[in-house]
Design brief:
Strand order of the largest sheet of chain A: 2-1-3-5-4
CATH topology of chain A: Rossmann fold
CATH architecture of chain B: Orthogonal Bundle
Strand content of chain A: 15-25%
Number of domains of chain A: 1
Strand order of the largest sheet of chain B: 2-1-13
CATH superfamily of chain B: Cytochrome-c3 Hydrogenase, chain B
Radius of gyration of chain B: 21 Å
Order of helices and strands of chain A: EHEHEEHHEH
CATH topology of chain B: Cytochrome-c3 Hydrogenase, chain B
Number of helices of chain A: 5
CATH superfamily of chain A: HybD-like
Oligomer: heterodimer
Structural class of chain B: alpha+beta
Structural class of chain A: alpha/beta
Largest sheet of chain A: 5 strands, mixed
CATH class of chain B: Mainly Alpha
Number of domains of chain B: 1
Shape of chain B: globular
């Protein structure tokens, strides 16, 4: 059973760091049998990070208009979630939705793909992440731990 | 008394970020075309002032996530020029190898992910992958070979950290190079298949009369050193750059435009390199270009996608040549001592010539830095292309015109590719 958690974000762009911080928090007490990875948002590299796994959990900042720190969970395994995924913004050539759809087209999807989004509001260069997203880190971490446990012991 | 105000702009950004395109069509005629770059100034040249000359390759690598090696190479060559040092032998070869990695990464990303969808009538690479997953997989495989070279020699795939003035911090092991050679052999087949694939696309007839500018080396396809030449008689040393070229500000762009003082607009990049130096490509690469229907020159910017594929094959072959004949240097770098002076150098980034100028003091502190990237040199030519391209197509509906204009901008693989892929374009008809 291969389980991976990938935190996506940029540590120098305010709330965008939250995906990385969730993985950092998990590393403090690493869940057994779970690979913890990070990504700066290169979707082509992400293809390799999700390839061949039974479960992949992605964590990233999201902009949907909700209150800062709001947690969003999307099961992207079966598609038809493009609209929801389009809320994940990117400063790169491809956003998360395109990255996932590309993986689907290429038959590189993991057995199950869950995406956690944490609503961000401040993405200024060189800014630290705000209190609201920081407050959500532990809860998202715990939910991911449960997610991984359930997969190992269905 | 009339108040006289002078607005002085001391800082200009020159690279990547967000772009827009405004076209005005007046009574059926194109009256204005503006490629707008409104990325905020990034101050890199100011950051460099006061830093050690040894930091330039690491700081400038941060300018671009797609072509950091180009920035590092122009920076180290310029610093070595300032310090009166010339690097040759195996370290020079390894620098070329690193550059090959970047050309492969960057060209393949643009060919497969950004430009090919235009020719195939698709909105993005996901739509291409839906129909032809095996083609997209080939592109990803090929790009990975470029990544592998940059990782191996640069220490990591993006913003490499192993380059220093005088050479490298560490040279990989012979076993690592042997492994790379195996990967490159597979990449060669993929590169040939890429040329065949893109040469089958449909191209509009759009040959243009450009002044083409690139580096020129007596024996090598332009890469990391040489004089600066053009098809209209320019032939200068990189040190003479500022005597012949000048930057100027246009209101609609935060990236400075650059022009030849004598003749104005010019073009850098794959088409320039190819058309000026076809004879320096190895015979098998020349043959692959001919098989793809190219002549010894190419002045149709839409066919730049084929030229990029040809240059990708060249980079794979050059990388193989270097790896096969490599003698590991005794030391990874040559010690470079600073001296007060000015250093100028240009290398060929994937998108075209990238010129750096530095002035350093006797302790090696940077007093002045000027960086002129290829996209800023091509901006005016991109606008010219668009004017010429749109004129016979004004009758097209806006959505079709927009599609074709975006494609025309992407011919240049501008370093604002990320944003020009979602180019915001307005067409105003009066």
């Amino acid at each position: 059973m291969t389980i991976r958690v990938v935190g996506i974000g940029n540590s120098d762009r305010g709330d965008d760091a939250v995906g990385l911080l969730v993985v950092e928090a998990l590393r403090a007490d690493p869940p057994t049998g779970v690979e913890l990875l990070t990504s700066r948002g290169d979707m082509l590299a992400l293809l390799d990070q999700i390839d061949g796994a039974d479960l992949v959990v992605l964590v990233d900042a999201v902009v949907s208009g909700a209150a800062a720190g709001t947690i969003l969970r999307i099961d992207a395994t079966d598609g038809a979630v493009k609209q929801q995924l389009s809320q994940f913004t990117s400063t790169h050539a491809f956003n998360l939705a395109e990255g996932i759809e590309l993986a689907r087209s290429l038959g590189r999807m993991p057995g199950r793909l869950v995406v956690y989004g944490i609503e961000g509001v401040e993405f200024g260069m060189g800014q630290p992440p705000g209190t609201a997203v920081r407050d959500a880190i532990d809860e998202v971490g715990n939910r991911i731990r449960e997610e991984c446990k359930c997969t190992k012991h269905p | 008394m009339t108040e006289r105000r002078q607005i002085k702009i001391d800082y200009m950004a020159r690279v990547e970020g967000e772009g827009a395109l405004d076209i005005v069509i007046d009574g059926g005629k194109v009256s204005d075309v503006k490629l707008k770059i409104f990325e905020p100034p990034r101050f890199f040249e100011a950051f460099l002032r006061g830093r050690s000359f040894r930091e330039a390759p690491d700081i400038t690598a941060r300018i671009c996530g797609i072509c950091p090696v180009a920035y590092q190479m122009s920076a180290v060559h310029a610093m070595e020029d300032a310090c009166g040092v010339t690097i040759d032998g195996p370290i020079r070869e390894l620098r070329r190898l690193l550059y090959c990695g970047e050309w492969i990464e960057s060209h393949v990303l643009h060919i497969y992910m950004l430009h090919a969808p235009d020719f195939l009538g698709k909105h993005n690479v996901v739509e291409v992958a839906n129909e032809h997953p095996e083609i997209v997989e080939r592109g990803l495989r090929l790009k990975k070979t470029g990544n592998a070279i940059v990782s191996l020699l640069g220490g990591r795939e993006i913003h490499p950290i192993n380059v220093r003035v005088g050479g490298f911090y560490k040279i990989p092991s012979s076993q690592d190079f042997a492994k790379l050679a195996e990967q490159l052999k597979v990449a060669r087949d993929d590169a040939v298949a890429t040329i065949r694939w893109v040469s089958g696309f449909d191209f509009p007839d759009f040959d243009q009369n450009y002044e083409l500018v690139s580096l020129s080396h007596p024996d090598e396809y332009p890469f990391n050193e040489g004089r600066i030449i053009s098809n209209r008689g320019l032939d200068i040393d990189a040190r003479e750059y500022h005597e012949h070229f000048e930057e100027h500000h246009v209101e609609h762009s935060t990236a400075l435009h650059c022009r030849l003082k004598a003749r104005g607009n010019y073009k850098v990049g794959p088409l320039a390199r190819y058309s000026l130096h076809f004879d320096k490509l190895p015979a098998p690469v020349q043959q692959a270009a001919k098989d793809a229907g190219l002549g010894a020159t190419c002045t149709n910017p839409f066919k730049s996608i084929i030229v990029r594929a040809v240059e990708t094959l060249y980079a794979v072959d050059e990388a193989l040549r270097i790896v096969d004949s490599l003698e590991r240097p005794e030391r990874p770098f040559v010690e470079v001592e600073p001296r007060s002076g000015t250093g100028l150098a240009a290398t060929e980034a994937p998108r075209g010539m990238l010129h750096h100028t530095y002035r350093i003091d006797a302790d090696g502190n940077i007093e002045f830095a000027q960086i002129i990237p290829p996209t800023s040199q091509n901006q005016a030519t991109i606008e010219n292309d668009l004017r010429t391209f749109i004129a016979p197509r004004v009758a097209l509906p806006d959505d079709k015109l927009q599609w074709q204009c975006e494609q025309a901008v992407r011919n240049y693989d501008p370093c604002i590719s990320c944003s020009t892929h979602f180019l915001k374009m307005t067409v105003e008809r009066r």
